[in-house]
């Protein structure tokens, strides 16, 4: 794939990712409730979700994916249910500013694994993601002419763009959270972010 085509694809994909949607809202809510580092597993799940959709389209499995729509519906509702659980936890969180992972580590333990799965489920059931990969992507690149090298190039490019933009949103939300020191302010943030996360869950389930 020539450089011009890659730049065009990168620009369109970046614009699609940067535009507000369920994924961005969930990342912002997660970062506001915790911090940037604890949002990274969730972002990883979102990246894996996008790569899964791209793999289905690039592999010519779009028809197969549509045939197993019930599977994606189940995943969508499971993801929405977990987002509601996250919203409830955030809503009831103590009115204190969490310090996060002070040692600088980012673990993928039980909570990290659940966050990855939540991000993956959110993306697989996200209508915005579906529209991009099933309707827009085929208009940007010639899927039938893609070689394995092109697939690898595009996967790497998407992972970098998506992760960078989501981390940017998370960092902005984290920075805003750090300016809130009073318990009354933090309680309001918990209520707002919990409500935002619940709204994302409802929006995903309703589509």
What are the salient characteristics of this protein?
207 residues; mainly alpha; 9 helices; globular
What does it look like?
With 207 residues, the protein is an all-alpha fold. It contains nine helices and no strands. The protein has one domain. It is 79% helix and 0% strand. Helix 3 (36-58) packs antiparallel against helix 8 and helix 5 runs antiparallel to helix 9. The protein starts with a helix and ends with a helix.
In short:
The chain is 79% helix and 0% strand.
Rounded radius of gyration (Å): 18 Å
By secondary-structure content and strand pairing, the structural class works out as mainly alpha
User: Level of helix content?
Assistant: over 70%
**Oligomerization status of the protein chains:** single chain
Unreliably modeled segments: 98-105
User: What fraction of the residues are assigned to beta strands by DSSP?
Assistant: under 5%
| Total count of strands | 0
Number of helices, counting only DSSP H or I runs of 4 residues or more? 9
Shape: globular
- First-last Cα distance: 35 Å
What is the count of distinct domains? 1
Average pLDDT taken over every residue: 77
Largest sheet entry: none
The H/E string reads HHHHHHHHH
